[in-house]
Amino acid sequence: MSRGSDQSRPRPDERERKSPGLLLGRPFGVPVYVTASWWIVAALITLVYGGIVEARLALGPSAYLLAFVFAVLLYASVLVHELAHSLVARWYGLPVRRIVLYVLGGVSEIDREAPTPGREFWIAFSGPLLSLVLAAVAFVLAHFADPFSVPGELLFQLWIANLLVGVFNLLPGLPLDGGRLLRAGVWKVTGRPHTGSVVAAWGGRVLALGVAALPFLFAWSAGSTPGPWAIVWGLVLAGFMWMGASEALNNARVRARVPGLRARSLTRRAVTVPADTPLAQADLRAEEAGAETVVVTDSAGTPVSVVHPAAAEAITDARRAWVPVSDVARALTEHSTVSADLEGEELLTELTRFPLPEYLVREDDGAVLGVLRASDVNAVMTGRAVGGR
Length: 389
Fold this sequence. Notes:
This protein is of the alpha/beta class. The protein is 54% helix and 14% strand. It has helices at 37-57, 62-91, 117-142, 150-168, 177-190, 193-221, 228-255, 263-266, 279-289, 309-313, 317-320, 344-353, 374-381; strands at residues 5-6, 22-25, 32-34, 96-102, 105-110, 268-274, 293-297, 303-307, 329-331, 337-339, 358-362, 368-373. The strands form two sheets. The protein has a seven-stranded mixed sheet with strand order 9-8-7-6-12-11-10. Strand 2 and strand 3 (32-34) form a beta hairpin. Helix 2 (62-91) runs antiparallel to helix 3 (117-142) and helix 5 (177-190) crosses helix 6. The mean pLDDT is 88.
């Protein structure tokens, strides 16, 4: 099943993730990956559904080939569903990192949250809407085909696959699209996206418990006991939903702290010293100024690097008198400077555009205020105390 879109934000020091699997292509410029786990599901679908196809069409071994085609169609349906999310998100100006197809469906990785509940609604609803439209089209076409022919069976598979993807994802709980629709609704009514996320995440947890109970409820209503496969799949799907809802709940708590981010208050005071200044002398100047960081300048007084704390601490006291600060400093880049006036979402957006370990913070007149460490921002986002404060 499709997981819909994921709008969790990377933390400021997070690097680009490693490739999650095999790159299938870049439809509309969006990279699409399939993980190795897909082959496990494809094999299971082929084995289970192959017997059903053989009983219906008497195709012999070819029935299993047709069952594998069904597995491909199912994930093609998920891919189309995710592309709908991604294209609508890009229409609204939100960057889409990639689409990943995995064991239980797919996810569109969108790097920023929708700015309004209306846009959140349409990004979330676009996937199920397209899935249901495709299901309807395939359902109509299936009526013009012999149900006991290969085309008839493929059309049947196509409308069933899209119906499953569309309806399942409308269930009102995160991480499903229906959860994001619920989030948008609560956000619209309360004016608080955080409240919407919390309600939708708890909705996902309730749904997870319901999915785990379904095999037992169906079996007991029929006066029998649930089969082992039904129990396993119910628990796997429920576990996926519970973990996704819990992740969404944690992300909501993190997002609630974004408005409290202020570059000025998080900046560590710094002293500036020339590149050839001995480390011991830089330590003394920082202590006298009550500064926590050392910024290294070139001969023209332009900041070029920041002393790396771990590298500086590795230098023994005996050597600090003659090791220059330039030997234990990390170079600044063209993206290393941020404004002291940045706050909240604007600050987080700036930091996540170019993730770096530290940033030089400047006033509007160009004066150096100090150094902002990504670790300090992460500490605020996760509710931990900023180091030394």
